[in-house]
Specification:
38% of the residues lie in helices and 19% in strands. The chain is α/β, with parallel strands linked by helices. The longest helix is centred in the C-terminal third of the chain and has 17 residues. Strands 1, 2, 3, 4, 5, 6, 7, 8 and 9 form a nine-stranded mixed sheet that branches.
Length: 280
């Protein structure tokens, strides 16, 4: 059985389409909605599906707390994480399920963003534990180091999400999980539709968001992946995200001169500078 874990906070606009995308799957599932203290109509709407959806009523603690609660409550052999504003594509779990064997710990499909047309199918790639696996995910962090489109075998020693991280908690978790995995399979089949929204916490301007990115990079640099060949690619991808989502975000009230000064200062950060040096 596959446990689909859905953290939700004030998701009244999207929760029905999210849940219905899971209910439409033919694979055997349990659906766990970890409600993170919603104050809108999320719980009332979720009540329409009470016979198929298990709801966890949590005090607001953030997405990592909700995902951890969902993992703790899961009774399936595999876990799939789905954000409340996203959906599973039709037959998504059936596309992943043939690769969910006892000797495989993780299976990764592909992500469709917004109204993007799903990419065509291709051959699956198997990566045993080790440097090749870590470098493979670090080479494409926006697709392989998010929690989206993955299925993970549930194990007693499964890591928990770091509730201290405000950004990149999924990258941190995926790297720690894969570091102890025996084998992972990458299936170029679309399974997950990611909603592109201006309301997303990642896309809203927060001055402290730059520090949150750097905190995440600092933590990950000291753990699995920090010494791998493709680590600079991961760091520099996040460097570009800081420039886009923080420094040069349209809502940034600072003058253009101050924005360029911030960009130069960021380039001199030891973590960023080291990534540039290692990339040469």
């Amino acid at each position: 059985m596959i446990s689909v874990i859905i953290p939700a906070y004030n998701a009244e606009k999207t929760i029905c389409s999210c849940l219905e995308s899971v209910l439409a799957q033919t694979a055997k599932t349990e659906i766990i909605l970890a409600d993170d203290g919603s104050t809108d109509e999320t719980l009332r709407l979720a009540g329409r599906y009470a016979d198929r959806v298990r709801v966890l009523h949590l005090t607001h603690g953030g997405v990592s707390t909700a995902r951890n609660a969902g993992l703790a409550a899961a009774s399936g052999e595999w876990a799939v994480f789905l954000d409340a504003d996203d959906t599973l594509l039709p037959d998504a779990l059936d596309r992943l399920r043939p690769y969910m064997t006892d000797d495989v710990d993780a299976v990764c499909g592909t992500i469709s963003r917004g109204n993007e047309t799903p990419k065509p199918y291709g051959a699956a790639a198997v990566y045993p534990a080790g440097h090749a696996l870590m470098d493979h995910v670090l080479a494409d962090p926006t697709n392989r180091l998010t929690i989206h489109a993955w299925a993970f075998q549930i194990k007693p020693d499964m890591p928990r999400f770091d509730t201290a991280l405000r950004l990149g908690e999924d990258s941190d978790w995926v790297l720690r999980y894969l570091y102890t995995a025996r084998k992972a399979v990458f299936v170029p089949m679309p399974v997950y539709r990611y909603t592109v929204s201006d309301d997303s916490a990642v896309h809203k301007w927060r001055e402290e968001q730059g520090r949150d990115y750097l905190t995440m990079i600092e933590k990950l640099s000291q753990g699995p992946g920090g010494k791998e060949k493709n680590w600079p690619l991961f760091v520099l991808t996040n460097y570009l995200l800081i420039l886009t989502h923080v420094v040069f975000h349209p809502a940034n009230p600072n003058s253009r001169k101050r924005q360029f000064q911030a960009a130069r200062k960021l380039r001199g950060n030891p973590l960023i500078a080291d990534a540039f040096d290692r990339a040469d």
